[in-house]
Amino acid sequence: MKYKINKIIVAILLLSSVLVEAQDTPYQLNNFSTDECSMFPEGISKKDSKLWSDCCIEHDVHYWLGGSKEQRKYADEKLQQCVQSKGEITLTLISYGMKLGVRFGGNP
User: What are the domain boundaries of the chain?
Assistant: First the structure.
């Protein structure tokens, strides 16, 4: 019986030392980098070649920071709204396609 209690005490001490060490280790973000809209164009024409690249950069920042599934969904919806807000009627369809792309192909 005494041997079993000693094993339990050792296990508790080991577990508590791991938890204390985990709490002392600060969370560290990697350096931010972006490729803007990845493999998607940043605009419609040469004239507007960067029309919604700021939307993609903001989206990349959200993904870089990480978060829950809900936060990822929010970031994807915000990307769609940002692209849509650029004023072109065709951007409604493009923004919806972008949202679908990041929902199914993007990594959080």
Answer: 30-105
Average pLDDT over residues 60-66: 90
CA pair distance 42, 51, nearest whole angstrom = 6
Return the amino acid letter for 34.
T
Taking the C-alpha atoms of residue 67 and residue 99, their distance in angstroms, rounded to an integer, is 18
Q: How far apart are CA 52 and CA 37, in angstroms?
A: 9
CB 91 within 8 A of CB 84: yes
- Report which of residues 45 and 81 the model is more confident about: 81
pLDDT value of residue 19: 45
Eight-class DSSP state of 51: T
Stretch (H or E) spanning 65? helix 53-65
